[in-house]
Design a protein that fits this description.
Layout lengths: L1 E2 L33 H14 L30 H4 L8 H17 L10 H4 L14 H4 L12 E7 L2 H9 L10 H4 L4 H4 L4 E9 L8 H12 L7 E6 L8 H4 L1 H6 L1 E6 L7 E6 L5 E6 L23 H19 L6
Parallel strand pairs: 2-3, 3-4, 4-7
Antiparallel strand pairs: 1-2, 5-6, 6-7
Length: about 325
């Protein structure tokens, strides 16, 4: 998952003539309301888990690439083409740079952020009129044409099973794929157009080891990225008990040795454990909780996020994601002067 700086994501999207209001599920009484899982997933993260934490003065844009999750085959040694290309082109720095360049040009062509101009027409709150516009048409509509703004600070975020994609992006600059030609899906100069701007990495309850990327490899690649030429690079770590947060030193032993730490251990229940880490100048922060620590005595639904009693592993995983997002958005340098 990518996170950068926030636009006010719409509740109404012009995805088809019958889907002005994406439904939470198909409704037989209203056949024009169509449930669209990919759109619902983007709304779930951008509106449900991200935007409540964004401060009013944070000028951020959040980009959420949504793509199918390829089911692994039975033979890991003989993976299908779909498995080999899972996450492309966005698991490379070249592909990510191209995505952000296109988003930047789109927002500029729509004059996002200019006084008196909004994205209302585009996102369906007003009925579009006339023919669709291309970026080339903008010069005839705006007499004060100016170059698109340059890329500023970028953060990449991963959650759950997307950790292998981030692990690849940490070490893979160029895009080389028959199905995703670099001249269409990437850029030729990612080392200049992307790397200097990638200053933060958010690891939000990532699955490691077992059927995912090995924790030792992930930690090694994260630290290699952190210690590269960018002295301003920073990162966030967060894990629930579902992903190993009950023993964070096992996941990130090197980072633990470099960190200042504070531990909370319940005296009445040895399983209720939490720990926070931080580095010099807060260049990295970490939060790790066992699932019993993420459990309330009774359900508390009056707060955000809701604090439930005895959550399942999946529920604790989702709850930790919301907590980690709030922590990261409070800590981040993105969207600030």
């Amino acid at each position: 998952m990518v996170s950068y700086d926030i636009i006010p994501f719409p509740l109404q999207l012009p995805l088809s003539s019958h889907s002005q209001h994406p439904a939470l599920e198909n409704d037989p009484k209203d056949p024009d309301r169509i449930f669209q899982p990919y759109v619902n997933l983007a709304l779930k993260y951008s509106l449900g888990r991200w935007s409540p934490f964004v401060a009013n003065d944070q000028k951020m844009i959040i980009v959420v690439p949504i793509m199918p999750h390829v089911t692994p085959g039975r033979n890991p040694a003989k993976r299908s083409q779909d498995e080999l290309e899972n996450g492309l082109p966005f698991r490379t720095q070249s592909g990510m740079s191209r995505l952000l360049t296109e988003v930047n040009l789109f927002l500029h062509q729509r004059r996002y952020g200019w006084p008196g101009l909004k994205l209302d027409d585009w996102w369906g709150m007003k009925k579009p009129t006339g023919q669709p516009l291309s970026p080339a048409d903008s010069t005839s509509l705006f007499t004060d044409e100016r170059p698109a703004p340059k890329m500023r600070r970028i953060a990449l975020a991963t959650f759950s099973s997307s950790s292998p994609l981030l692990n690849t992006a940490l070490t893979t600059v160029n895009l080389a794929s028959m199905h995703y030609p670099p001249h269409l899906w990437g850029v030729l100069d990612a080392q200049k157009s992307f790397q200097p701007h990638w200053v933060e990495t958010w690891c939000l309850d990532p699955f490691l080891d077992n059927n995912s990327v090995q924790a030792a490899e992930f930690e090694k690649n994260l630290l290699s990225w952190f210690h590269s030429s960018q002295s301003s690079r920073r990162f966030v770590l967060a894990n629930s008990g579902t992903t190993g947060g009950g023993n964070p030193g096992k996941l990130y032993p090197t980072i633990q040795k470099l960190s200042s730490t504070r531990t909370r251990q319940a005296t009445t229940d040895a399983k209720r454990f939490a720990e926070v880490w931080w580095g010099p100048d807060m260049r990295w922060i970490g939060m790790f909780c066992s699932n019993p620590y993420l459990s309330a005595a009774t359900d508390v639904t009056s707060l955000f996020p809701p604090f439930t009693a005895h959550p399942s592993g999946d529920d604790a995983h989702g709850f930790m994601h919301v907590l980690a997002v709030g922590m990261a958005l409070h800590w981040t340098a993105l969207g600030r002067p």
